[in-house]
Design brief:
- The chain has about 675 residues and is of the alpha/beta class.
- The chain is built from 28 helices and 14 strands.
- Among the domains are: about 170 residues, 3-Layer(aba) Sandwich (Rossmann fold), CATH 3.40.50; about 80 residues; about 90 residues; about 70 residues, HRDC domain (DNA polymerase, domain 1, Orthogonal Bundle).
- The N terminus is likely disordered.
Length: about 675
Amino acid sequence: MPRTADLPGSPATSAGAEAVLAGLDDEQREAASAVSGPVCILAGAGTGKTRTITHRIAYGVHAGAFVPEQVLAVTFTARAAGELRSRLAGLGVGGVQARTFHAAAMRQLRYFAPRVLGGPMPPLVENKLRLVASAATRARLSTDRTSLRDLASEIEWAKTTLATPEDYAKRAQAAGREPPFDAATVARVYASYESAKQRDGVLDFEDLLLVTAYALEEHPEVARQVRGQYRHFVVDEYQDVNPLQQRLLDAWLGGRADVCVVGDPNQTIYSFTGADPDYLLGFADRFPDAAVVKLERDYRSTPQVVGLANKLIGQAPERKSVFRLKLLGQRAEGPEPRFLEHPDEPTEAAAVARACRAMIEAGTPASEIAVLFRINAQSQVYESALADAGVPYVLKGGERFFERPEVREAVVLLRGAAAGGSEPGALVTTVRDVLASTGWVEHRPPPGGAARDRWQSLAALVDLAVDLVAEDPTTDLPRFVAHLAERADAQHAPTVQGVTLASMHAAKGLEWDAVFVVGLVDGVLPIAQSLSRPDAVEEERRLLYVAVTRAREQLTLSWSLVRNPGAKRPRPRSRFLDGLVPGSTPTAPAPPRKAKRAKVVLDGEAGELFERLRAWRSTTAQAASVPAYVVFTDATLQAIAEARPSSLRELSGLPGVGARKLDLYGEDVLATVSG
């Protein structure tokens, strides 16, 4: 494995470089000191991934292996990039470019556009919906906002996987996509969308990466300048890279191998967006001389949580041994994870709400508790239960914090107050006074709903001011306002005091003291439409693994036998819990399940509803003279049978139910569900 000792001058003994390695464990130190050649860091959940890669960069700089300005570190979120920059600054390293893929591409394309495009960089399409709506109209489609969002997402998937309008239908079928309209129609909308962009002279965010890659591939002078500027690359969350991002990375590298990739194959959960874990899994094949370092010491979770996570992922089919990570808990002992069965969903939600309230009353901050579920439609029953129990909550994945109207208004008022001067040592009082002018009362939070959400947003600004003063008592209002601007740019919202409600996907990268993972029944996790594909089922297993590893100390996994009170026959708990629940045994990986076996998969109440839905579908298809699957696929009927939607809004959130089908069949489906 390449080591610093192999470098000319061997400066590894310098005090600055060695100081950077102090405090790292043996594996982190090994990864941080591998500063030349291709490097693959397999970093398990909670193993100090960000700490390791920032110390690696800092070590390379202090050891003389890196020039800071020649390092480009790319990640997937502005917040993660900001965290990299902040930690590097704390290590005494400035000048390193830590950016998202899109931010790095934008910076380069803006500079090279006159050479590559013959003029300044075209404007960016901030939101695709207008152009997609125009393209759909030209394709004579009847759409609403939901179906337009689905079409925009499908176009994004096509572009990130490098599918063109001409080969979209074939590629979508091969990938098992369930587009909102038939594939040929989506391809027409996609082609029309691309034409509309060219007509308007604009680029979308996928074009940023595509055109930048093209500039490097087809313009030697551009490639020479960029590759001369950037000689060392770090790619975070490499398991989430898609083909378009990999193409840009290859263009940046230009055949060189000075790249360090960091990822966790056990946290590959975004294949549906185009992410391709094969780039991580095949890294050692592509670079046979690559240094591969495993980080398995988990500093986040108790040994009890770690043990459960290992059991869960250990039941997955074997990968190459080099990619098998087994976490080693480093924290003190904690409580055993709890497994709870409930008679129905409202009872399950009420039990979770009571437990959250008891934790808060015992001293656990509400912001250190999370309730995680598979699909967003599951949140409603928990929102109601928490509200009934008087427990504040925050729904993650909603409107961005700094775009909320009350926050924007507050920032404007704070900026105005800062312009008028600030009394030293009075930041928190000043912030409270400014917010009070909007009607906010600190110690009188409203009981719930939108008013409570608004109160919590403003309270989070006060809490942030308190935290900043605790770090630096000299912080004044102008510096606070500047800090808010930096956070807004990085999409780094302050902590809102409430129990977090989030989907398992939205929870990735986060952690809490206590986590409730709820609704763990077959057909929800694994989700119904994954059942015909073993690879999709395994991604669902990894999704549960991500949820489990969010917990630091307390972990509760629960399920309910039926959805609504009074239903007669139970539904099966998630197969992923077999071998985890005390007294149960692991089940062997099941062969691919064909959709026609859905009655077996969905027994009990859901199975009965599934059969009613199939009967309705058969009648509807005959009346329209179309095949049954054109109405709804069996996978979609399974999802409906499990979720039992009671409104068009809930129905529209299920996979395979686009706006067109909602208009055509929505009321009939709800009538069938209600019996």
